[in-house]
Design goal:
Length: about 70
């Protein structure tokens, strides 16, 4: 009878350890997924800012206005 209780307790302990291991694995997977999503959002935001700043940049040479008098 005591042997049966010990076996049952050992099985329960083993099941608890397996459940904790599965929970830890799931938490790690969720953490990695969240980090990957955050990194992707930062990359998309950086790309969008770069594209916006590139579109607003001045291209070409500076042409002074024609109605300015010569200071000489």
């Amino acid at each position: 009878m005591a042997n049966e209780r010990q076996q049952r307790a050992a099985r329960a302990e083993q099941m608890r350890k397996e459940r904790e291991k599965a929970d830890r694995k799931q938490r790690n997977l969720i953490t990695v997924a969240i980090v990957a999503i955050v990194v992707a959002l930062i990359a998309v935001g950086g790309y969008a800012i770069h594209q916006t700043s590139s579109a607003n940049s001045v291209s070409g040479k500076y042409v002074p206005p024609s109605n300015i008098s010569d200071p000489k």
